Amino acid sequence: MKVKVTNLGVLKQAEFILGDFTIICGCNNTGKTYATYALFGFLSTWRRIFSLSISNDKIEQLLANGVVRLDIQEYVKQYEQIVTKGCQAYTQQLPKVFAAQAERFKKTDFQVSLDIKNVNLLDRFELTMRAVNAELFAITKSEESMELVITLLVEQEKLTIPSDVIKRIIADALKDIIFGQLFPRPFIASAERTGAAIFRKELNFARNRLLEEMGQADTNIDPMELLLKDYDDYALPIKTNVEFTRQLETIVKKSSFLAQNHPDVLADFADIIGGEYTVNRNDELYYVPKGKRLKLTMGESSSAVRSLLDLGFYLRHEAQLGDLLMVDEPELNLHPENQRRVARLFARLVNLGIKVFITTHSDYIIKELNTLIMLNHDKPNLKRIAEEEGYLAEELLFTEKLKVYIAEEASIKLEGKTRKTKHHTLTPADIDPELGIEARSFDTTIETMNRIQEAIVWGEE
Q: Which residues pair with 8 in a beta bridge?
């Protein structure tokens, strides 16, 4: 999947390909967060903004005959038009995604390009719509079939769902079959995640107070508008973090595929934070240090523990194969050693089937990823080094899995212009199987510091 943006914040014109492991580096205020938030917003809303038309004739046929069959290929042929119109609709939603003034996005364009020819459609699909005491209709696709079969399970006069709702349910099924494997399910940990961890209880109190206001409000007031009014000033990723943190009592009841099949990954994460998180029956969140008989609130815990809270609960309770884990500045509050360990954790997740997308200012993370790339060769000396330094085979990375971009000011040729001018963009970084990622945004700074320190030490000679 390729994303192209124009006039998005400081990004005048930029594009990037979503890989198994996507990294955006760069100085402050160069557009990393703009690209991240825009991608997350699209992946969170594409089902709602994509439009597929189900004809009235098909619904009438369903009601008259009790069954109707749709040719999925007819909708596959429309995928470019569906995606284009969906991106246009999403561009109009960007002010809400960023919680910013619409004026800032008047010239913005957001586009997604798909290589749908190389992606298989969903093999099987089954959905049964139920009422209180009865099954109403079923939507199925069998393996290797290109037909979507909708079957009425009650008599026509007992079907109380409006035709428009039936159309929408069928259209959503088609979206999942055609696009579901092209767009991963996103989970984001924004740079503001530490605040959500500390003020979790206060957020709950504020929401409960709003619910009380709703009960006392004038009947002409929209309850949802009242419910969400305190969140209007926050971008969608931040809202998502707040909601995730608020719902931990429910989330802990679920078990991720990592918890079921790869508990060693969770053990590695517990080593990074030096303990584990726990939520009791009273919805109280604690951090329990390893080997100690005490429970610490988030206010009593270290900033590193708070920074990794979302990631910890995601790994244990939410992670699914094919997800896209997005972390804005994973190095927040982490010692360099833990930055290295988090880099290895991400590499392991990528190799297990979870896509990872990060923005980072951490030279330690990039250099550790370089080590994982450079060690991934069938050479005796490299195998010896990996074994001596404790690297696992499942942590090593192939360059084909990585897409790395530098957010920077560079000379680019804008559409309709005859010459190049300097604007903020995303420049692909070189990735060498022998040497790793060339992250010049870090290298320049490090070289400058080394030059100054060498001058201080050797300047008198």
A: 11
